[in-house]
Amino acid sequence: MSQTPVTPAKVKTLKIDGQDVSGRENETILDIARESGIFIPTMCFLEGLSTVGACRLCLVEVKGISKLQPACVTRIEEGMEVVTNSERLAKYRKTILELLFAEGNHVCSVCVSNGHCDLQTLAQKLGMEHVHVPYRYPRRSVDASHARFVIDHNRCILCTRCVRVCDEIEGAHTWDVLGRGVMSSVITDLNEAWGTSETCTSCGKCVQVCPTGALFEKGKSVAEMSKRREFLPYLKQMRGNGNGSNDRSNK
User: Fold this and answer.
1) Could you say which of 3.30.1490.190, 3.30.70.20, 3.40.50.150, 3.10.20.340 is the CATH number of the domain covering 104-232?
2) What is the pLDDT of residues 63-85, one digit of tens each?
3) Which residues contact 133 (CB under 8 A, 6 or more apart)?
């Protein structure tokens, strides 16, 4: 049986921060920036998972387009000129971070992920010193019904990493999002307690990809919850080689 020949992706040339770069037509601005050593902040993006453009921290300026564009989902174009670092972008990114902090109840000094938190690290890197918007102080629950893990909704920023890794890598689809807007929250199964879930395989992938202290292992105290994400690039490569997308052997 003959195989259909694969047409190679076309190469596009563009400029990022005045630097001449190139990439395949199916790559994004974020892909090319990272390959070129150019820093663009992200929170919802994680290599090995699908991109959703949820956090908007990766916004960049593209010449000829008035609106800021999310680098993680914007495909490169021939002759595109991109700016990743400007006064306008710095203001937007700090504001986004401030909103993330204000929408939840983030107390770094007592968090299990203190010193190992992507949100905390990015705030320090981008020079966010204060929150200039009113805190919401929402009343959110903590679910410790699982035998091994805990979810603290006070620290969740709705990046949906847990939802995507459970669906795309583990194949269980235990996690999902309930509600809309400011009332949204991640849930297990049909909004049941995590410990009663019949779909959860207790693999811990959702815990490992969480960028904050929202998902953590029981028995961890302040600053002890570090994350291990080495399995994601490997599983992504395996999927690309046609060896299956829902691999449950890497728990």
Assistant:
1) 3.30.70.20
2) 999 999 999 999 999 999 999 99
3) 95, 98, 99, 102
